[in-house]
Protein 1
Amino acid sequence: MPHISIHTFALYLALLFSALVSAVIGLSQFAGMDYLAGALVPLSVVAVLAWALYAGLRHLAQRDDKNPLVSGLGPEGIMLQRATASALGRAIDSEAGRHFAAGEVHFQGGDYEAAAAAYRNSFDSEESLAADLNLAAALLSIADFQGAREALTMGYTQAQRQRSREYEAAFLLNMGALHARQGKLVDALGAYREAQRHHELLGGGRGLGDALVNTGQAQAHLGRGEAALESGERALAVYEETGSEPGRAAALGCMGYAHSCRDEFPEALEYFQQALAIHKELDNALGQGHVLTHMGNVRFKEEDYEGALEAYARASKLHGAARDALGEASAMVNMGNVHFRQGELDTAQENYDEAFRIHERAGNVMGQARALTNIGSLLARQRRVESALDTLQRARGFYLEVGDDSRGLQSVEKLIARLEAEVGGAES
């Protein structure tokens, strides 16, 4: 059975019911069967609805053609940019086009590993900025930092060679996201600001809002709360001007995060509630999950452990529904941290173990490293030194596998050194 697109189906439906309306009118007039006129009402309604559906879908398709780059929330609530099929530069029925379209389906479904494989297959003899950009976004979503860096570096070099400022900005934005994911926040901030400069030269728009949101989040994490709030407010104004509701939610979330980092908890929760309401209206499970995680962090800081656990549990469920393994496992780790703080170490380890299993199933090496770091810290707390060392050595191996030199690796190595010194001291 041949595949039929939804807008084609809508067209067929509209034509079918329009034909039926015409047929009923003709029969009733020819045969004097006035009672047939009663059938016109439901048939006409369906026909009108079908034509409206078709027109709406065509409008969306045309809009996508005019917007080859799209933005959305990525892992840990960081804004990422991707290319649409119209940006590929090749016919969608070509071999490269089919693989690219398959990548889009996998990406939207949360199967980032399959998406990455499809995007790789969309490369052909021609250079493809679109494929590089989307490949990097998919690899970032499974914490394949080395692969993402290679795709971003290659794509950015191509964009510079082709003098495509729009793509340069997109690659810079995603490169900043890579730095942020690795804890290199100063480098991330530099990349975001450069992306911001490009978008300002391009005349602003949604991309400028994305750069400002990410800039604000990095500033907040670095303790620059006032600057973070200013970035969030600028982003909100940009998104309101462009009519982007997902962007508005992201900007409000950024402002909430800025207040949270300044320990201004009531203000933080107010902004998070506004962002959550928009994500709920948009039926965006991923966005809701990110906001609820932030709200859980606020409750944790307030020592409202019951409220924190409730928020994290909701976040984990929403991330699971969105097939966001990283977000689901992150929420699970946060739940473990609450139980750890309360001295409920067995429950905490269950949460950490579950987070590790989620990352393992998803093939997320970095996630496995971070989960093992938590487990190793817990074992050290229990004075199970040998088990802690074995676990932390495994974590160290995973960090090295992905080429990570962030604070995660540094903290693991410090903990290993401390435990080894304790073992050495005990033996002497």
Note: The longest helix spans residues 40-66.
Protein 2
Amino acid sequence: MSTSDGAFVTPGMVLDLDGEVETGSGIGTTERGWIALRPGRVVISEGMADVISSGSTPRIPQIDEIIIGRVTRLHNKTAEIEILHIEGRDDADRTLDTFHRSADIFVSEIVDRFMPSPGDGMRTRDVVRARVIQSEPMVKASCKGNPALGVLHAICPVCGKFLSVSDKVADQNVNCSRCDYTGYRALSNGYGHGHILPEGVDLSELNRGGERWTPEMDGRLGHNGARPYLSPMADHRRGEDHEMPANQANRPVGRDGRPRREMHATKCTLCGTDTKVPFEPTPGKPIRCRDCMDKVKEGNASKEELSKEREVINEMRKKAEKEAGVKLFVGGIPHGASEEELRSIVEAHGEVRKVDIAKDKEGNPRGFGFVVFADPDEGRAAIKALNGTELGGRKLRFEESNSDSRGGRRGRGGRDHGNRGGRDRRNRN
């Protein structure tokens, strides 16, 4: 029977059209003939046939009615679908109120087997057939209990080509003929044929209902509320073989699919227990575990605990300073002086880790440099001992680098030592 004007179709459904008719962008051709490329109504006018997506939405569906919808969003435990059609209704396209424009499919209602996340059985943009199990106050649906329910149409999350049914690998029942993507969908018997079920087709065995996941597939599932299905990159991260784009290769992700910050092991300064924080711990600042953060925020930390924490923080600061050493600024260095000459002057006052004389782009000395002492106490003592020391006929000036003692010696634009000889230009006469 030929496809009539106004008939509702879904992607993959074979269309019986007049051989001389021209087709629009909503209709494509395969070895099976003309097929619908999008859900909507067939419009035939003046020798032109096309599929037009309906701008209206079905009215409130009732319990046990069958709906056709498009997956628009995946949450931790539910898949949200936009309702496109209610089967068996003449008035299926009446305007719907806001609370009934979409339906939720809980993860346990996708397929009859354990599934941690809804994205393990369907992805965004998939077209699904489902049975309404709740109408008020919001619509809930299920794909279980009927081989006609489930995913009707899916595209490759990597390249966008229609996914084909595959039985080559257990628990990977769809693949892409263009790239090497493979995955799992809770398939309807109508998959690849639209919502009109073909005779003699049974895909339920590929869903493997009631069976345990293979070890390979289990490692790709969204356990613990993870949502790897939100991005094609997740397929790479969960063991897909196709190549990951270079701009995504070094981006770790968290459970929500977003880039994850690196965690740093440390100790809570309040209770002393081992913990991890998403930032580089700074010595001299409080670092607390989650329980202690809540305790301090709620005002339940005692004065004794806070006092002890301050002692711990001070000890951490002293230890970090000793390990890092101290960096001294050296001004008034003659342009002909070498780093070896400067080292010979300062190393008598303690262990010197580094001596560096600043140079411009052309490699010419800029008249100042830096010295790093391993022991902060030795470095600070060297400031008093070395200030005014002569080198090449000039007196050297030592200061602790980035200390407040330099005050006004910061030049414009935040650049240090921008004034020769350390004099502030505002003091010039």
Note: The longest strand covers residues 66-74.
Protein 3
Amino acid sequence: MDRTVLHSDLNNFYATVERKLYPELAGKPIAVCGDKEARHGIVLAKSEEAKKFGVKTGDVIWEAQRKCPGLVIRPARFREYVRWSRAVRDIYARYTDLIEPFGIDECWLDVTHSKIFGDGERIAERIRGEVREELGLTVSVGVSFNKVFAKLASDLKKPDAVTVVGREDVRGKIWPLPVSDLLFVGKATAKKLSSVGISRIGRLAGAEPSFLKKFLGKWGETLSAYARGEDNSPVRHMNESADLKSIGNSLTYREDIYNYEDVKRLLYVLSESVAARLNDSGLGKADTVHLWVRDKELENYSFQKKVRPTALCGEIAEAAYALFRTQYKTRRAVRGLGVTVSGFDKGVRQMTLDDLSGEYEKKERAEKAVDEIRKKYGYSKIQRGIMFEDRSALSMDVRGERLVRPGGVDGEVASQDDGEPDMEPFEGD
């Protein structure tokens, strides 16, 4: 028997919440943005009115304002968004306890055994109506027999709509769509697939799995199965938390970055966020540091290295910087950076010579003291010396903002160019 899976996507969520908090914004084009005084001042979300002017997620603020002269810029308030998101999930819980979040504004719901409320489409309509009437928010809901197609269905008609995709609809509704519409197919993967004539989901579904495996690795087989509707992944219980495998943060910047010192400084900003969240998590220390780089051509690169188990910002940042200096070979200007740690010891590990000497403990105490000062008096009250070389870096509280890189990052390793760089070398060579 087929499952009945819903994917619920709150429309223009951040902007709509801002209107609920400030009714005088009704009817005005709104963009919720990062700090406009810092490099990461980009559009995180926009209202329907702003969309009509061509404002897009990831636009830098000046670009968005050029497209829409009357654009109202609102700062992101994630605590409020979380509060409203929880209120919406309380409505979902009236119909099922199988609720799996996919970001703050999206959820999957398995309502296979909720037939007392009607079929999937009926339940979706009830949810849509209750969210609108009780909270003043709108939601687009996709109904299908698996998570991947339910997600795709919710994207087909927005805002405030319900779209059903049954097995009989796959060939007519799904397969003609661009392959980039399929979940987990980002820009880099879509570009690769297009290079071999696979631009539609139907072409992906019909491609030989062995070829896709050779072309894209094991992930190629997975995407092929998704295109054919072969997704059996369950919707997790609302109280089930996924085992945390990594902690990371990333930022996309307004200007191209050419200077090694700027890269190092920004890696320290990100590593402070990662280290603070790692220490808060109770997962112990991490033994692997991952670096993500997006270049000026919007190509993405990933590198990693083993380190001695650590939760120290300085050690994480220096490992990430070493990866950048040794592994980033294209030498193109940089537009985005990300730092992630994994391989947690959960507090159980062998002692090292550094432990016995007390050096690690001293560094740990110093970083914890800094974090406590920031919690009490604000992030900017105490900074590393490297930050003062760029005043904009002083305002980047990435731990508090938890910004995500906008749009379509696959997280995959792009092909490396070992030839001559297509730009001037980074300063400091």
Note: The longest helix spans residues 260-281.
Protein 4
Amino acid sequence: MKRILFVCHGNICRSPMAEFVMKKLVDEAGRSQDFLIASAATSTEEIGNGVYPPARRMLASHGISCEGKTARQITRQDYAAYDIIIGMDTHNIRNMNRIFGGDPKGKVRMLLDRDVADPWYTGNFDATWRDCLTGCTQLLKEIGEESWYAINIEAGRLVFTLFIFYKRYFYYLCPQFLIEDTSVGQPASLRQSSAPSLRIRQDRRTSCPPPVSAHAKSNIKVCRNMNFLEEKILTTGVIKEGNILKVDSFLNHQIDIDIMRQMAYEFKRRFRGVEVNKVLTIEASGIAIATLLGDLYDVPVVFAKKSQTANSTDDKYISHAYSFTHKKLNDVFISKPYLHATDKVLIVDDFLADGEAAHALIDLVKQAGGEIAGIGIAIEKGQQKGGAMLRKEGYQVESIAIIESMDWQTQTIHFRSQEEKPLLSTNLQAI
């Protein structure tokens, strides 16, 4: 039996797609009994979570069910348990070598001769499907060739042994005269194949330096003690007079989809184990984050409106929120059909200062009789009271970037639990 393990970062997109594509191929070939096929992650971020909904839908569109699959992390024991261990990209390979303590038997390889693009960042699940199908089809062909070689090598070795025994009995008694064969006694699956793409990999490094994140541009030196959002703030944000942080290049005016997607993924990780059946935000800047998070959870997204329209109904929940940015009190409302007593609501917003918007959204949920599952914030102004107040009230508040202080004159910003670093714009020296 050939034992194959597919591996990616989180085990919710690429590796489960490859796993179930391979299972379908071997089933169609009538060889299911000859294979044990599974998938796993190099990280702990998605342990216990099911296949990412868009990946699940892509498999389903090709008649493949991944029902019951949940993410798990690889262990050192997996190296002994599987014959072939396949990573989706070079980062996966390095992380596997770190976890396994190297690759002494040459089991670790790539699915393709290039990285399989992560659809979490690209959003292109069609391309990932094609890559998985191409790689798995070639792998099945190579395993067939490997089996043919193994059978013929075994047959040749048997014939040669019998010949030696018959013609050279002395040599049989004195094995020092025979050519040493280090593969004797090993199972065929561990012997180096003549198939070119199954050759032993040369990259056997056991250390795993932190990879440069997908969002980091080539002209930016990534600070390893910062997360992706802090990096983005440092490289594109501007502090205006009055210590107002301007991030409209990626969040408040122009939307950087990659950053939104990463924030959604980070919120999903931080609220792992929390039951959520609805994502709630307030117009307008929180909508992009909430939409991608709703897609990740596969649940509806609702946003509270600040202005009445001709389509507004009288049957709605209403609260009030003071805007720190606009210096005005806003009525915020949600039509009653979109919030229910059975809802477990994850609140998401772009900024948290005094907590006015968050408390308004909490009030709307309470009016409906729903439950607050948590509060996810992109950027929290830690020097203001909102975050501390919400946490004191017992809510789980997760802020990806927390600003302790900033100075518009020196263009410096201090993130919580970090060294003070300069806030850079494109015309300043890169860090």
Note: The first helix runs from residue 14 to 28.
